[in-house]
Specification:
By secondary structure, this protein is mainly α. The protein has a single domain, classed as Up-down Bundle (Growth Hormone, Chain: A). It is globular, with a radius of gyration of 20 Å.
């Protein structure tokens, strides 16, 4: 699925246009320092997305609404993520760093809105802003890495960056559980606002401006430029395949995972702190998967790595209901296996996506994030409806079917890297 015939020129272009001007960007001290900064900032930005899973019941109680209504409120972050095709290409036009700073500003505003008021309206605004922050920040930072690191080594760099998701589990989720139990459910959001400000400072001081390969400047309006990007990308077959697999992959996990906290709480009677600690197990699984991507995706090939992850996800979801019947520890082991295979597939997919259209890198990555958001949104609505039967088996098997369809599409795509 990766564009082999343009790989050499793309790598040369990356070397030419990398911020540091180094030929081996991923091995340089400068790139390592920037990866560390990106990892820290993305951990903060990803924490709001993580805490809604184990602490959705607590959020619902704090807002004074049902679990179903709370699910719809937190899903507004996913709806806002659908704006990525509008805002994602902005970094191609205005520079990566400036757009990343804008995303962090929205994170700060979201935290203030949720920490300052416990109303359902404030929560709706906050989660919408969280979604916008991700829609703006993620295409810019992934395009930044695409500009800076040659394709042959991009799996490692993006795998390290994606460890922010597991870091959000390992650090953000337990800290959130502690703050919610010791202070109140709004305290974590205030902390996230402060960390967002610090992240903006780090972005300004530690991430030099980066742009992709130079292209002729066209004096067109912003909307015209964005629409032109859309049309050019959606006419490419590989782009359509990438977006389809992205949607199915995210939906496959989200259908069972969005009720993960409610399932563990109702089935095994876990407290908020226990849910936070249990979630560290999931975070460790993600970290292992992301580390596996850094070690193996470039060697095995991105497409083969994605396919292996999808097959593993299908199998883990099929087995989850049977494993969960044994007890809490086997249930957590099943969740770990589900997350491990999903994350390996997802992170292996990112470097592949980043090179499908190097001439419009941020534009394609914004479409990718929108596809992921659509998968989350559709899965959230479906999961909320399925949970009326309170059956994790039903949720898992629907997710497994979606993963299997994605695997078939990947298997039928003959190209490899």
């Amino acid at each position: 699925m990766s564009p082999e015939q343009g790989q050499t020129s793309a790598s040369d272009s990356n070397r030419c246009y990398s911020p540091s001007g180094l030929q081996d960007a991923s091995a340089s001290t400068a790139i390592r320092a920037r990866l560390a900064i990106i990892l820290l900032i993305r951990t903060v930005l990803n924490t709001p997305s993580r805490v809604v899973y184990p602490f959705l019941p607590a959020i619902a109680r704090g807002l004074g609404v049902s679990l179903s209504v709370a699910t719809q409120v937190v899903s507004l972050r996913v709806v806002a993520g659908l704006t990525a095709p509008l805002v994602g290409p902005l970094s191609d036009r205005f520079g990566r760093r400036r757009i990343m700073e804008l995303g962090l500003l929205l994170l700060v505003l979201a935290g203030i809105a949720l920490a300052g008021s416990g109303s359902i309206a404030a929560a709706a605004v906050a989660f919408t802003l969280y979604g916008l922050a991700k829609a703006i920040f993620d295409p810019a930072v992934l395009a930044y890495l695409g500009d800076s690191v040659p394709y042959a080594k991009r799996g490692r760099a993006m795998g390290l960056s994606e460890m922010s998701w597991s870091a959000a589990w390992l650090l953000g989720v337990p800290a959130t559980g502690f703050l919610m139990e010791r202070i109140n459910w709004r305290a974590p959001w205030a902390v996230l606002s402060v960390l967002g400000v610090l992240g903006a400072v780090l972005t300004r001081l530690g991430l030099p401006n980066a742009r992709g390969p130079a292209r002729p400047v066209r004096r067109t309006g912003l909307l015209t430029a964005v629409l032109g990007t859309w049309g050019g990308l959606l006419r490419r077959r590989k782009v359509v395949i990438v977006l389809t697999v992205s949607t199915l992959l995210m939906a496959a996990l989200e259908v069972p995972f969005i009720v993960y906290g409610a399932w563990l709480e109702s089935t095994f009677g876990l407290s908020l702190s226990a849910l936070g600690v249990a979630s560290t197990v999931v975070g460790l699984a993600e970290a292992v998967a992301e580390l596996g991507t850094t070690l193996f995706a470039d060697r095995l090939g991105k497409r083969r790595s994605v396919l292996a992850g999808l097959i593993g996800l299908t199998a883990s979801l099929a087995l989850l209901p049977w494993i969960a019947r044994i007890g809490l520890v086997p249930a957590l082991a099943g969740v770990v296996l589900m997350m491990l295979t999903f994350e390996f597939a997802l992170v292996s997919f990112l470097p592949l996506v980043s090179e499908v259209a190097p001439d419009a890198r941020a534009g394609l990555l914004s479409f990718y994030i929108t596809a992921v958001s659509m998968g989350r949104l559709g899965a959230a609505l479906l999961s909320s409806w399925l949970w009326r039967w309170q059956s994790i088996a039903l949720q898992a098997w629907v997710g497994g079917a979606l993963a299997l369809i994605a695997a078939v599409i990947m298997a039928l795509e003959s190209d490899d890297d």
